[in-house]
Amino acid sequence: MHGPRSILLEPRKVPLGGVRDMDVKRILPDRELPTIGPWCFLDRFGPNDVQMRLFPHPHTGLQILTWPLVGGIHHRDSVNSDVVAERGQMNLMTSGGGVSHSEYSVGDGPVTLDALQFWIALPEASCTGTGTFEQHSDLPPVALPSDDGPAGEAVVVMGELAGVTSPATVHHPTVGAEIRLEAETRLSIPLHIGFEHAVLVVDGDAHVAAKEVPVGSMLFLGDSRDRVELYTEEGALLFLLGGAVFEEDLVMWWNFAGRNHEDVAAAREDWESQSGRFGHVVGHGDERIPAPPMPAVHFKPRRRRAA
């Protein structure tokens, strides 16, 4: 699938339940479009008044990017990280051959929490070795000149936008940026013509490439665009994501990503047997989220269905 597109992706509510006891709004993977560049998963958890207690759980084949909007998220992991991320700070955990982590809301009771969490598929060459973690608190801004109204502002979270590069580690050509527009603004942002892109409307009202996009939805733009026009009447908060098409086979199940069924089955077995592959999350005892039973199907790589 090549060339410009205009495909609206709408969120669906997913109850997490159990120790998490909260709903999220999931927009990726989409049945028709499982990846956008290497971006393969997007949840928004909030805004909710919740006490989040996401016990230690594993990941393979992924980078986990957490971008808080409201409230703090306490992250601990098996590479000895113990940090709180708040608005303007980005957490990025890279699985390597296997990593585990926990995520808690801050405090002893329900708090208002809102955040975006993305998964970014790792190429085969990056799917081995020790996991890593980085937090970035001073991501670079970009001024976006307007065609009409006030100038816009972006924060480059991953990759490069308009000649400005994030310090975050990338393993596949990628871009991710938060964009803020004031009321009555029309502008266009430069795009890498070889990437495919999408724009998520986090808050406010927005037209993306002349199409109205509701809050919580995302417009997939395809590739072969060197710019995209944005317009808002009342003001908007957006998130641009994209990258080079992820050409490798991708099998995703539960918290694992691999190239085939055997990859995710082996990861599940290693987690359930507590083999040591995923380490131990700092600050936790025996608390952990068990893997669900493997379905009685043979997983196949995800394929695009969107025209």
UniProtKB/TrEMBL annotation:
The lineage of its organism: Bacteria, Bacillati, Actinomycetota, Actinomycetes, Micrococcales. Belongs to the pirin family. Residues 177-274 form the Pirin C-terminal domain. CDD domains: cupin_pirin_C. This is Pirin family protein. It comes from the Bacteria. SUPFAM superfamilies: RmlC-like cupins (SSF51182). Residues 24-120 form the Pirin N-terminal domain. It comes from Microbacterium bandirmense. Pfam families: Pirin, Pirin_C. InterPro entries: Pirin, Pirin_C_dom, Pirin_N_dom, RmlC-like_jellyroll, RmlC_Cupin_sf.
